[in-house]
Amino acid sequence: MYLSQNRFEQLKRYFHISPPYQYLPRAQWYEKFQPLASLLATKYQSLLVPESEVAVDEMMIQFTGRSVHTTLIRGKPIPQGYNVLALCDHGYTYSFLFTSRADSFAELNSHLYSGPLKLSPTSCAVYQLACTLPINQFFFTIYMDNYFTNILLLKALRDRGIGACGTSRPTSAEYPKEFKFGKKKPSFPLNTISGVIQRDVLVCLWQDNNLVRFMSTVHTITQRPGNYIEKRRRRPCITNSNRQNILRFFGDKPIATLSTPKIAIDYNNHMNAVDLADQYRSYYATQLRVSRVWMPVFFWLLDTSVINAWTLAKISTASSDDPSLPQSHHQNHRNFRIQLAHALTFSGYQSLNPSRAVELEALVSASPIPPANGRHCPGTVPLGNTHLSRRRGIFSLSTYFYL
Question: Most CB within 10 Å of its CB: which of 60, 214, 252, 254?
C-alpha cells in the first residue's frame, strides 16, 4: 500500500512539534527538538562502544530559509544550513552539538574543563564531545582537521587520557615560531619531516607534494620500526615549484615506494568517519524542501537514526553465526531500508487491524527484494549531488511512501 502525494502533503502540513512543558533555563532556538535530540543522543551512546579511532568534524543540515542561526560556507557541497559538530566512528554518529551563527554552541558546558588552560569555545565543544566517550574503560584517539587542532586542546585531551591527532594551522594558539615562515614558504626535499615538542604535543612538518603541518599526542617521528611505513605512491603533477623534488624521487617512473610517516597514514585512514556519515545519509535522504525552521533538523535526526541502525545491523549480523538472522542487513543499504519499511508497516498495521496482520505479514515476506543497482551506492544513484538539485534546495525526492 502506497501513500498518494496529496495525502502526504496533508500529513506534512499538520505535522507539528509542540514546545516542551518545562522550558529550558534560557530560551534557545533549538528548544522544540531539543528533548528529541537529547533522547536520541543518549540512545546512540548506549548502543555502541566506538573503536579506538574516532573523528570530529562539522556536518551541515541544508536549509536556505529565513533564520539567523544558519551558517553560510561557500565552496562546500552544502553551502548553507544548520551547522552541527559531530563525533563519528566509521559513519556512526556517536554524539553531536548544534551550533548557531547567532548563538554559538547550543549546549556548550564551559565548566566541563576545569584545567589551567584557556580553551576557546570551539575547543571546549570538541572537549565536551570527547568526554562523551567511555574514556574510563577504553583508550581513544580523536582525529580532527586544522579548524579544531591546536596545542591547548591537544594538551587538555592528553591530561584527560584522550589521544588526538590532526592537521594544524600556523596561526593556531602557541604554534612554534620556528615553524612560521610567513608568506614565502621554504622548499624542503620531498618526504622530509621535522618536529618539535610543545606542551607535550608533537608539532611536525612533512614535505609531501605540499607542506603539511601535523599535531599529535600519540605519534612519534623518530627513526624506529613502526613509525614509517613503505607505501607505493603515484607521482604528483609536476609544476615549476616541485619539479626538482618530484624528479629526484620518481624520475621517469609513474609509481615509487616511499617511506611514509605513520602519522600521515593514520590521519588519512581515520579522518573520514564524519564524511562517511554524510555520504550514507545523502544516498537516501528524507529531507524535503520546507519553510519551517525546525523541520530540517527533524529530518536530519531521522536520517541519522536510520544510518546508525543500519550500522548496528551490519555489526550484529556480521559477527553472529545465527542462520536465522536475515543476511541482507549487512549486504547493502537499500535492502536494510526496504526491510525497515516493511517492519514499520507491519507493526503499525498490527496495532490498527490485528485480524489481518498475519495476512499482511505473509504478503510482505513473499514479495521479493529487488536486486541492488546503481554505480555509486548499492541501490540508487545518490541525489543532491547535481547542480540542478542544489539550486532547487532539495536533497532527494521520494516517489513512494510506505504506510
Answer: 214
Residues 6+ apart with CB under 8 A from 135: 160, 161, 162
Q: Is residue 69, in this structure, part of any structural domain at all? A: yes
| Predicted local distance difference test score (pLDDT) of residue 389 | 37
Nearest by Cα to 256 from 236, 238, 233: 233
Alpha helices in 74-218 (DSSP H): 121-131, 151-159
E strand intervals along 28-155? 53-62, 71-72, 80-89, 92-100, 104-105, 141-144
Which of 179-195 are b and which e, b meaning 16 or more Cβ less than 10 Å from the residue's Cβ? Answer: beeeeeeeeeebbebeb
Regions in the chain scoring below 70 on pLDDT = 1-2, 19-28, 318-331, 355-403
- Which residues, other chains included, contact 31 with Cβ-Cβ below 8 Å and sequence gap of 6+? 19, 20, 23, 24
Nearest alpha carbon to residue 313 among 48, 73, 26, 7: 48
Query: To which H or E segment does residue 244 belong?
Result: helix 243-249
Provide the CA 296 distance to its chain's centre, in angstroms: 17
Give the burial class of 8: count Cβ atoms within 10 A of its Cβ; 0-12 exposed, 13-18 middle, 19 or more buried. Answer: middle
Residue 223 vs residues 101, 159, 245, 363: alpha-carbon distances, Å: 46, 27, 22, 65
In degrees and rounded to multiples of 5, residue 275 shows phi and psi of -65, -35
Residue 292 lies in a domain: no
User: In terms of DSSP H, where are the helices of 271-372?
Assistant: 273-283, 295-318, 333-352, 357-366
For residues 8 and 12, what is the distance between their CA atoms, to the nearest angstrom?
Answer: 6
**Does a structural domain hold residue 231?**
yes
- Domain count of the chain? 1
Q: Which phi and psi angles does 179 have, rounded to 5°?
A: -105, 10
CB-count burial class (<10 Å; 0-12, 13-18, 19+) for 261: buried
Contacts (Cβ under 8 Å, ≥6 apart) of 299: 285, 286, 287, 288
Range of the domain at 57: 52-276
Cα–Cα distance measured from residue 139 to residue 127, given in angstroms and rounded to the nearest whole number? 15
Nearest-5° angle of CA 247, CA 250, CA 255? Answer: 145
Q: Which of 148, 163, 250 is nearest to 208 (CA)?
A: 250
- pLDDT for 361 equals 65
81 in a domain, yes or no?
A: yes
Q: How far apart are CA 127 and CA 16, in angstroms?
A: 34
In angstroms, rounded to a whole number, what is the distance separating the alpha carbons of residues 202 and 215?
Answer: 5
pLDDT at 88: 94
